[in-house]
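WARN retry 2 of 3 for item q-0093 after timeout on previous attempt; input resubmitted unchanged.
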Amino acid sequence: MPAGYICSNCGSPVSPAQNSCHKCGAEIDWEKAVGRVSYITFLPDARKRRRRRRRALLAGLFLTLALPLFLWWGWRTAWTQNHWRDWLGANAYQSYQQGLQHLRSGQLDSARSDFGRMISLREKQTPAPSPAPAPSLTPTTLLAIQPSTTPPTSPTPTVSPAPTSTPTPRPQQNQAQTLVQRAREIGEQEPCRAADLLHQALDTEDSPAIEDMRQTMLARCEQLSPTPPIQLNSPLPTPPAQRIAYTRYDIASGVYNIQTWNLDNHLPGPRLMDWAMQPAFGPQENIIFRSVAPDRPGIYLRPPGDAPRRITKGSDDRWPRWGPGGQQIIFTSARRSPDGSPHLYLADITTRAVEDLGPGQHADWSRTGQIIFSDCDAGGQHCGLWQLDPTTLQRTQITDVPDDSNPVWSPDGRYVAFMSSSRGQSWDVFILDIQTGFIIPTATHPAEDGLPAWSPDGRTIAFLSNRDGDWAIYAWQLNDLTTTRLFPVGPELPNWQQAGLDWGS
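OK item q-0093 returned
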């Protein structure tokens, strides 16, 4: 702003353009004129600039903190997870979930392996682009029980849709169609086997046509074999109803659940629990199991006809088994131990008190009070099956093969059934005679056999196997050394060694 000047004679304001004062007429000597300058403060503008910078800083800080929370909330919504699972596929999504669990537990190598498996599975299921897709049969044609033999009179012209709108068939639907086609081929000679295949198809595609076809095959199966396919042939008195609780994998949702199978009528029972695995029958029809739900992990007890109640809260608590009196359970956990290695823990059902019994895993408790488990000695050597006295905590080594695992006592406490991969072609089930030390192999097979469970009378061993191309429960009879397929579990069972099953009455 220009400075203001005044006349030194009369004090009137003058401008530099004047040579004389307009009031008194005095000549102005601009060299000696005294300037009157009006200064302007810049404080209001500085405050405005500081206020704008402060607001921009606060807005950036808010976005930095709020945006990750918003993204985390959006990722945890069911809608986002469902679309993520559909895009990845069932197997890749399961590897993704396992990778998250290993990442939370600090197992970085396992998490890296799971995420790598997820990427490879996703790449395998991504279809290669093709300019002209080959025509395929519609699901309605595949699901028909009696396919029509009358040829069409004339081909009907169809308009090919745009490549962008052509839906990619899901692997589950293709698998269901394959199972239905295979069941139709063997339906006349083996209706019982065809009914099992259709039961597997219903796991991947819920269709009324498949269920109608399954009912037809079951009717043919009953006509061919009026007696139940399972005979327990035991001289000992057995309960009126026996059932097997097993872990099943839902391909559509990618969730493990526990289901039962009734051995008397050879029919599946109701689904007991979702997000659960490793069931174990106890006294008075109580069942303990491991919960793998992200928001409620731990070991739970489910009384008959009542809601489950939590016993432990550890996310790594697994393989629960009942004690002789039905008031205590034994389980395995690595996150509870001070060194991060698997330890055995004793939990009281009533007080929920937990006691550390030392290193070990995959333990089972006999009716006589002895505990058997798999572990190594203090120096990491002499691995195999060990026996533990819960009173004195004295340990005795029984076998010397490192991968002997998942031991279970026979009802009389003389034999121990376990699984091992070094004693046969792959994972197989073996029987150890505690009195003589002899090891008896069951029906060894190149496929994967494991997770043995004794029948209540001690004359049959149930185990999980994929020897027929799908996962199913088989029974090995000790009296005649024969193997019988009991019922199907499902076409897929990721991480099958952690599934678990039990035989109860």
